[in-house]
Specification:
Helix 1 packs across helix 2. Strands 5-6-7-8-9-11-10 form a 7-stranded mixed β-sheet, with helices on one face. By secondary structure, it is α/β, with parallel strands linked by helices. It has 3 domains: 43 residues, no CATH class; 84 residues, no CATH class; 174 residues, Leucine-rich repeat, LRR (right-handed beta-alpha superhelix). It has 15 helices and 11 strands. Helices cover 35% and strands 10% of the residues.
Length: 419
């Protein structure tokens, strides 16, 4: 103890639950305060003891184990750790639960670094799926914390009002999520062609990001058929939802979707876009719930409430916040979504071609006998000029070249110059 002074007065000890004064006790000479590493003694805390009640209702307490005390100490200082790599997953789970109980992940000063330490060490065990459907305030307030989850396999941002230029776009196409993200739901976000072009620009230009994306939801966004060519940079895309957009189901859309992405129209709605199994999954599930509870709490003291209102009014944000909260949600109501015709596309199984595919495919997929008959009829009808082998209407013309993801438009070059 650094601040013990034998000249301050008598000394006491506790024996059998009672204090007893002692005399002629020799205490060690105190060291100067400057040489002490601690300016205050390390006092016992309540958390070092377990409090229970016996059969008679009397309070009893017992000391915690050294492991538990050490666990609580590390949980308090998780944001100061360099790494947890190599620690067993069982220890990591206990440490995460202790830090969560102490609200380490809820404080904005400690949460990002603490979550980063766990995510680096345990990956998708910390958070495998994150559902923020129609919870746009939570996304805005916890953006720094959400960016630490770099092992997500499923991310639902439906109705989060992203617009065409949101900070989350850079995280979605970052190298941290390149190999993990499989499902992405960004419907109902007022995302236009420009926004989707900006989202996919790093992938098309630098060939990095969303390498394993298989399911994409773009429903209820004001996008046109122009966005189909932006999706050619997703090599493993298996299903696509464009319901409630400006895309109209027709022969041209089916053909362009098949030629550019390899997807065909699905007659029946795909279950992956029903959002019935959308949930947050992982150790951090309760952490996300804590964030939402904190965000929804209203200050109890009227004085604090009035000071917050005056501050918002002073900085000119009160009108902005009220307009955002009272504005019509971008995500449509459930009844309207059920009435909307589902426009789903999927990748067919290898070797399986339905009727729609045969209609959409060019003439070179037919049998050779049909080609010969067609060549004979065209060559002998009216003695007209035979088709040139390079003519676009010739049955021998090569198939239309697929859109190359490496070709850059003027808009892409403009975006590239901004990086």
């Amino acid at each position: 103890m650094c601040e013990v002074d034998p000249g301050n007065g008598p000394a006491y000890v506790r024996e059998g639950g009672q204090l007893r004064g002692v005399s002629n006790i020799v205490l060690a000479d105190p060291r100067p305060a400057s040489s002490c590493r601690r300016t205050k003694p390390l006092a016992l805390r309540k958390e070092h003891f377990k409090f229970t009640y016996n059969a008679k209702g009397n309070l009893r307490y017992s000391a915690r184990s050294l492991f538990d005390i050490s666990l609580l100490f590390v949980a308090d200082n998780t944001h100061r750790l360099d790494s947890l790599r190599g620690f067993p997953e069982q220890i990591g789970e206990k440490l995460f639960a202790a830090a969560e109980e102490k609200c380490v992940f809820s404080h904005p000063d400690t949460a990002p670094r603490a979550l980063q330490v766990f995510s680096d060490a345990y990956g998708d065990v910390v958070l495998k799926a994150l559902c923020l459907r129609n919870r746009f305030p939570l996304l805005s307030e916890r953006m720094c914390e959400i960016k630490t989850f770099h092992s997500l396999e499923s991310l639902d941002l439906f109705g989060c009002r992203l617009g065409d230029n949101h900070d989350i776009f850079q995280h979605l196409t970052s190298s941290s999520l390149a190999s993990s993200l499989i499902e992405l739901f960004i419907g109902g976000n007022c995302l236009s062609d420009v926004g989707l072009q900006r989202l996919t620009a790093p992938i098309r230009m630098f060939k990095k990001g969303l390498n394993n994306l298989q399911h994409l939801d773009l429903s209820d966004n004001p996008i046109s058929e122009k966005v189909v060519r932006y999706l050619t940079c997703l090599p493993k895309l298996q299903s696509l939802d464009v319901s409630g957009t400006h895309l109209e189901l027709g022969t041209e859309l089916k053909k362009s979707m098949l030629d550019l992405t390899g997807l065909v129209h699905s007659e029946n709605p795909l279950s992956i876009f029903s959002h019935s199994r959308c949930k947050t999954e992982g150790w951090a599930e309760q952490v996300v719930n804590q964030w939402e509870m904190i965000a929804s709490q209203v200050p109890k003291q009227k004085k604090i409430e009035e000071s917050r209102k005056s501050a918002l009014r002073f900085f000119g944000r009160q009108k902005f916040v009220s307009d955002v909260l009272n504005s019509t949600p971008l995500a449509r109501e459930k009844e309207q979504q059920e009435k909307t015709e589902k426009l789903h596309f999927h990748r067919p199984a290898p070797g399986h071609f339905n009727t729609e595919e045969n209609v959409a495919r060019p003439a070179y997929n037919h049998n050779h006998g049909g080609k010969k008959r067609q060549r004979h009829l065209e060559g002998g009808s009216g003695g007209g000029r035979p088709h040139s082998p390079h003519s676009p209407h010739s049955p021998h013309s090569p198939p239309a070249k697929r859109f190359s993801s490496s070709s850059l438009s003027v808009e892409d070059v403009d975006l590239l110059n901004r990086y």
